[in-house]
What we know:
The protein is of the alpha/beta class. It is about 40% helix and about 15% strand. It has 7 helices and 9 strands; from the N terminus they run βαββαβαβαβαααβββ. α4 (about 150-170) links the parallel β5 (about 135-140) and β6 (about 180-185). The radius of gyration is 18 Å and the shape is globular.
Amino acid sequence: MSTPSAISPSPRGLAVVTGASVGIGRAASEALEKAGYAVIAASRRLTTAPSAATGITTHQLDVTDADSVAALQRTIADHPVPLTLLVNNAGIPTAAATIADSDLADWRGTYNTNVIGAVQTTQALLPHLIRNHGSVQFIGSTVGRVPYERGAAYAASKYALTALVQTLRLELNGQPVRITEIAPGMMRGDDAGGEFMRTRFHHDPAAIAAVYKGVEHPLVPEDIADCVVWCATRPPHVDIDLMEVRPLAQAAQHKVHRTSAN
C-alpha cells in the first residue's frame, strides 16, 4: 500500500473506492479527493491506480477474497480519518454469449465479484459507516433493469446488485447511513471502449467500434464520478436512492440516436 506524502484535513472524511485502478473507480477516486475526502483507492491491480496525490492512498484489494477484505477492514480501523463513504464499484464483465452457449464459469465469476464481492466489502465496513453517519454507493447498470441479448450473465449480476441495494436500504431504515445505486448506460472507458468492451467483444476493435458508431458523446468515467460526488455530498437527510444516467443519444437500452458523422 502506498502512503500519501501528507494526509489532508479531509473535512468530508475517508472514502473507499473499490475497483479503482481504471474507469469509473479511478475517476471517482480523483473526484472525491478534489471534493475534500481522504481516499483509499482499492483494486486488484495497483499499476494503473491513481497516483499517490495528497489525500489518495492505494490499497491492493480482491473483493472476492475474505482475507483481502479483512486486511482492508484493519486498514480502515487504523486510519486517522473516519470512514464516511464506500463506493462499491469493483466488477467484471463477461464475453458476449447467448444463454445456450455461455460458459458457466463466466456466470460464477461475474456473480462472485459483482454481487458477493460487494456484499463482503459492505459487511466488513458497514459498522464504521453507521457509526460515522456515512454512505454506501453501488455502481450498477441500466442493464440491471433492462437486459440485452448475449449479455445475460452480466445483466443477472446487476439485477442481483439492484436487489441487494434495495434490501439493504430496507434493513437499515432508521440507521444513520445512506444507500445509493448509480446505474450508468452507454459508456466509453478510459481508452477505446474500455476494459468492459474489450472483454465483451474478445478484444475485437471492429466490434467495439460498432457499438459507438454514430454516437458522438457516450458517457465517460468522469461523468459518473461527478454523480458519485454529488450523491455523497447532499445534506445528511437527503438519500439519493437511484440515479440512472445515460448519454443524451440513448433514450433507452434499445433506442440510440446515431448520426452519419462517424
